[in-house]
Design goal:
CATH superfamily of the largest domain: Histidine kinase-like ATPase, C-terminal domain
Shape: elongated
Largest sheet: 8 strands, mixed
Radius of gyration: 30 Å
Oligomer: single chain
Distance between the termini: 87 Å
CATH architecture of the largest domain: 2-Layer Sandwich
Length: 580
């Protein structure tokens, strides 16, 4: 008897606060989301000691009258929903009705607010509400302009066990800046400022172009490396930007996800997006991505997590597949090719970050539907007709016996012959591996090769892979094999060397799963069999190589993350020669 008790309100309030308020960044996020829901166009965040001593969020939103201001700090008080049906497809950021009361229960809390209509001289009537550790200390009438300012002092002062787990001021400040940066990406029509101990850390004015917002937040270097994404499938739309494969690095990537304008976290969707980079980046590289998913409100549950950082999709597999296909389609467009750009240039164009606050960009040209989509845009003559790369109507030049250079209406295009042929052979090999295989060219004098024991085991285990690309091999006793037929990818093909290198690769490969093994083998075959740098090509060979490259699904990239195409815009040439 007497073991079960009803907890006092002070304890239950702190438990509720623990679900919503984890650190200063979560306080700032909740207050800024309330400001956005209030229609604010300018939001300023001030911090002291990383937010542990002071957090102040000021906005120019619609504000509140005295009655609403007093109710706002009560638990479960909200203006966003009226019934459980409103939770389905809720369009607002803050809707749980716990943020202000939770923050007020673990701090010294003060809110000043006034409804719209206050004058610039400050003669509008507003309200100040003061709460300490969850208890209302007082309220009074003040004079201020329209909008709201919330001040939070001594966060977790009455919960020392929570306060001692806060990180150093620098870490907490960084978390606040990152949280505001995500909201700034979603709301281009709002100006955001973050100040810490008197220094301005983030200044993001209102912009019409997401490229400018990305440059303001992450720097112009990253903005210039991004490729636009625009994809529609059924009820799902995926927009945003992904980094060019050649620019991906092993660390320091940005992975920002939004659903209907709301930032959220989902490692599985990030993995799906990385799947779209398959066979375009080297293992271990982590490309940056900023992706916005638009779905009907009843297809996603945004109330799945107390801090609203996670969501649940009704058809998660469908969304993951759409994200992967969206990324892959964007990488097949010419905008994904490497570009020689001038200072301040950025490939980031229009992006509808929240489903309606900015203008949406046109879908990029996509490869994979055949050569016409890409060759039509790349080889378009200035007179409006099509340039046939096979008939020699425009000059094509090989330089350094490695690069193929030709003119387009937009500038100069440079193709790396080895990387280009590598992409061609990779996609060709994948088609053979997934189909009936390729017929090899029979040799008048078969090759007899001696192999190491592990290499002989690899030939026996993976003979089907070798056969699919055109090698016909049979044992010859002991550790020897005889090669009767070989592929014929180009006249300079060294069949013996290619076979030996492929077998060595297979002996070292520890890939699990047939799809991964097939992709690794196809990539190795493409690399080993492709024409090399230093091979002089005849004009007909160069034209054939280009024609086959632009028939590929992902022509701008080889399988190692290097570009196959570099574009030098005409505008950049004119700028360099003082003609701009």
């Amino acid at each position: 008897m007497g073991r079960i008790l009803v907890l006092p309100s002070t304890v239950t309030d702190q438990i509720a606060a623990g679900e919503v308020v984890e650190r200063p960044a979560s306080v700032v996020k909740e207050l800024v989301e309330n400001a956005l829901d209030a229609g604010a166009t300018t939001i300023t965040v001030e911090l002291e000691d990383g937010g542990k001593e002071l957090i102040r969020v000021s906005d120019d939103g619609i504000g509140m009258d005295r009655e609403d201001a007093l109710l706002a700090v009560e638990r479960h008080a909200t203006s966003k929903i009226r019934s459980t049906t409103d939770l389905i497809g809720v369009p607002t950021y803050g809707f749980r009705g716990e943020a202000l009361s939770s923050v007020a229960s673990v701090s010294r809390f003060e809110m000043e607010t006034a409804p719209e209509g206050g004058t610039p001289e400050g003669s509008g009537e507003g309200t100040r509400v003061r709460v300490r550790a969850g208890r209302l200390e007082g309220s009074e009438t003040i004079s201020r302009t329209g909008g709201t300012t919330v001040t939070v002092r001594r966060l977790f002062a009455n919960v020392p066990a929570r306060r001692k787990f806060l990180r150093a001021a620098r870490s907490e400040t960084r978390a606040v800046t990152e949280a505001i940066g995500l909201l700034a990406l979603a709301k281009l029509d709002v100006a955001f400022t973050v100040m810490s101990d008197g220094r301005t850390l983030l200044d993001a004015p209102r912009v019409a172009n997401p490229g400018q917002r990305i440059a303001d937040l992450f720097g112009r270097a990253l903005a210039a490396q991004l490729v636009p994404v625009e994809f529609h499938e059924g009820y799902i739309t995926v927009r945003g930007f992904v980094q060019r494969p050649a620019e991906a690095r092993a660390a320091g990537r940005r992975a920002c996800l939004f659903v209907n304008g709301r930032p959220f976290r989902d490692p599985f969707l990030v993995r799906a997006a990385e799947g779209g980079f398959r066979a375009t980046i080297a293992p271990g590289m982590r490309p940056s991505m900023i992706l916005s998913i638009l779905v009907p409100g009843d297809r996603v549950d945004v109330n799945a997590h107390p801090t609203k950082l996670e969501v649940r999709f009704r058809d998660k597999m469908l969304v993951e597949r759409a994200v992967e296909e969206a990324v892959r389609a964007s990488l097949g467009s010419l905008t994904a090719a490497a570009t020689v750009q001038g200072p301040g240039d950025s490939s980031a164009g229009d992006w509808q970050g929240d489903g309606g606050s900015t203008s949406g960009g046109a879908a990029p040209d996509r490869a994979g539907d055949g050569a016409m989509a890409l060759t039509g845009s790349l080889f378009q003559s200035e007179a409006g007709g099509s340039l046939d790369v096979a008939n020699g109507t425009r000059a094509i030049l090989q330089v350094f016996d490695t690069f193929i250079v030709f003119e387009t209406p937009a500038g100069l295009t440079i193709v790396d012959q080895h990387s280009a042929h590598e992409r061609i052979l990779y996609e060709q090999a994948m088609a053979h591996l997934e189909g009936r295989g390729a017929a090899g060219q029979r040799l008048l004098l078969p090759l007899t090769l001696d192999l190491a024991r592990e290499e002989l085991d690899a030939v026996e285990q993976h003979g089907a892979l070798l056969s699919a690309v055109g090698f016909e091999v049979e044992p010859f006793g002991g550790a020897s094999v005889v090669v009767h037929a070989v592929p014929n990818p180009h006249p300079r093909f060294d069949a013996r060397r290619c076979f030996e290198e492929l077998v060595a690769d297979l002996a070292r490969d520890r890939s699990s799963g047939l799809p991964n093994r097939m992709e690794r083998f196809a990539a190795n075959y493409g690399c080993r069999a492709a024409v090399k740098a230093g091979h002089r090509l005849e004009p007909v060979e160069m034209r054939d190589l280009l024609r086959r490259l632009f028939a590929c699904k992902l022509p701008p990239h080889d399988v190692h993350g290097r570009p196959t195409i570099v574009q030098l815009p005409k505008s950049e040439l004119e700028r360099r020669f003082g003609r701009a």
